[in-house]
Amino acid sequence: MANEINKEEMHTKRVLEPLAWIFQLISGLILTVLVTFHFYETHFVSHEAMEYELVVSRLSSLGYKIMYALLVFFVAFHAFNGVRAILLDTNFGAKYPQVVNSLCFLAFLIAFGYGSLLLLVF
Amino acid sequence: MDVEFRIRRFDGEKSYWQTFNIPVKRGMTVLEGLYYIKENLDGSLTFRASCRMAICGSCAVKINGKPRLACETQILEIGNSLEVEPLDNFKVIKDLVTDFEGFFKKHEAVKPYLIRKDDNYEEPVELIQSPKELHAYYDFTLCVKCGACYSVCPAAATRDDYLGPAAITAAYRFNADSRDEGEKIRLALVCGDNGVWRCHFAAECSEVCPKQIDPAKAVQKIRFKSAIETIKSIFR
Amino acid sequence: MWQKWFSVKGKSLFSIAFSLHRLTGVVLTIYLCMHLAYLTSIRMGKEVFESFIATTVTPQFLIFDILLVLAGIYHGVNGLRLILHEFGLTYESRKSILYVSVAIVLIVWLIASYRMYTFVMGV
Ligand code: HEM
Ligand code: SF4
Ligand code: FES
User: Fold this and answer.
1) Which of A59, A38, B122, B154 lies closest to C3 in space, CA to CA?
2) Does residue C5 sit within a domain?
């Protein structure tokens, strides 16, 4: 194990890490509300909640559209920023932080974009 | 009473377990047990120790799976058979001796000394501090740099350049000192991607610290401060 | 390498909580991707969607659903615990807070599992 410190890295104070950390916690807080609501809506309210017509009618209403947009935004951010943190915990992440950051950001955009498609269709 | 010591040894090439049976009296420490083996059974057994009074931090080893100071752990408190291994997350040099060079470098890297604009070694002045100011950081001065915290940290386990709990705690200890003026410098040092962001509050460091100084708490405090300072710096 | 995040031999409950948080985080992320792919069926029309629902909202799938919900509840509740501590609050009582979190996870999980059971069985 080479316990060496990359001096360059240490002296560059970057804003990415602190912001990513604080948003990970904030998105976690927001998800608690949104995920609980989403789960409640689909599993607790009624047996018919998963019927096609009801699903489509929810997807067509503005209120739900906003709620789902927020949900898919925060969950995609939280999940792939979480994966980013995991990868940066490794020597691979230490060596290629830019690769990890860009791939995870891309994954976030794809997940958010793909999830939002559904909101645009209805 | 005879106690079985199972020791994980390493000779530079291969790692193996070796068992010794030694006579133990009440109050005898694990370190004394290791000395007994070295003096009477196998002179090639290698371990590190100095003060024998839990103050130098040399003798931390894994005893029955948990890192402890060998000199302050009594054998009979553990039981009548024990396993002694070198600390995890450090490169083993020989038997129980691990390489601390990187660990000390990280410590040095956070500038663990008072930084002041008016440093004048020709005519030193007394720096006054109230008891309250002292207690803001006092507990964290008790660190003996034994590496126990680093050896159980899951981030240090997989990323070699992570500063680790002890170094970050040292940075916090000086930042919290009312005589110090180097807070900004140290915040910048722990703010990289090998710094505080690697902590996920597994909090095992606080569980194993023989000085009970709660390194996990210091990491959270300095991390929060770093995040706030960064956000402020964006708007400045 | 990564196995070290999950080695809990000789570790305290806090390390186990960390390992489980990481594990459930990854499981939920994989599920998120599957879930987004699944939702494509809504865009493909009523028949496709309903055939998907007919195969997945079934007693056979219930066990996976219930385990997934356990992962979700654990990650959420433990996440709130982490947020509390990482924002600099209450590490002094971290032991009791951990016990309370585990209790909350179990209670919420039992309630949710019961509800999902009746939901799928159509009670
Ligand atoms: C329900 C509310 C949720 C809360 C309160 C929450 C909270 C958190 C927190 C606080 C962390 C940071 C842990 C740390 O690094 O110290 C985290 C990490 C993570 N979360 Fe969540 N989370 C939630 C939901 C989700 C969901 C729905 C997903 C996946 C789709 C997810 C995926 C992840 C991943 C992959 C990590 C990284 C794990 C790690 O660093 O070990 N989380 N979560
Ligand atoms: S913080 Fe505690 S465990 Fe870590 S090096 Fe210092 S004394 Fe040892
Ligand atoms: S020999 Fe000094 S701390 Fe144990």
Assistant:
1) B154
2) no
Contacts of C116 (CB under 8 A, 6+ apart): A43, C62, C65, C66, C69
Quick check: B25 and B113 in contact, CB under 8 A? no
* Residue of B65, B223, B224 lying closest to C9 (CB–CB): B65
Q: Rounded to the nearest 5 degrees, what angle is found at the Cα of A17, between the Cα atoms of A14 and A19?
A: 100
Residues of C with CB under 8 A from a CB of A: 1-2, 5, 22, 25-26, 28-29, 32-33, 36, 39, 42-43, 46, 49-50, 53, 57, 69, 72, 76, 79-80, 82-83, 86-87, 112, 115-116, 119, 122
Residues B166-180 have pLDDT tens digits of 999 999 999 999 999
Tokens describing residue B113: 């000394």
Do C25 and C75 contact (CB within 8 A), yes or no? yes
CA distance B157 to A10: 20
Q: What confidence tens digit (pLDDT) does each residue in A5-61 have?
A: 444 444 444 789 999 999 999 999 999 999 999 999 888 877 777 888 888 888 888
Is the pLDDT at C122 greater than 80? The verdict is no
Determine the pLDDT at residue B170: 98
Q: What is the CATH number of the domain that holds B217?
A: 1.10.1060.10
How many domains in chain C? Answer: 1
Interface touch B204/C85, C-beta < 8 Å: no
Section C56-77 average pLDDT? 92
Please give the CATH architecture assigned to the domain spanning A2-120: Up-down Bundle (1.20)
Type of residue at C70: L
Range of lowest pLDDT (B89-93, B126-130, C58-62):
C58-62
**In this structure, is residue C6 part of a structural domain?**
no
Rounded distance from Cα B91 to ligand 2 centre (Å): 18
- Domain CATH code at residue C20: 1.20.1300.10
| C2 in a structural domain | no
- Cβ–Cβ gap A88/B189 under 8 Å: no
CB contact under 8 A, B233 and A3: no
**Is the domain of B137 the same as that of B202?**
yes
What ligand is nearest to the CA atom of residue A72?
A: 1
Local structure of A4: helix, strand or coil: coil
- The distance of A17 to chain B (nearest Cα, Å) reads 7
Amino acid identity, position B131: P
How far is residue B66's CA from residue B82's CA, in Å, rounded to a whole number? 11
Q: Report the nearest atom of ligand 1 relative to the CA of C32.
A: 30
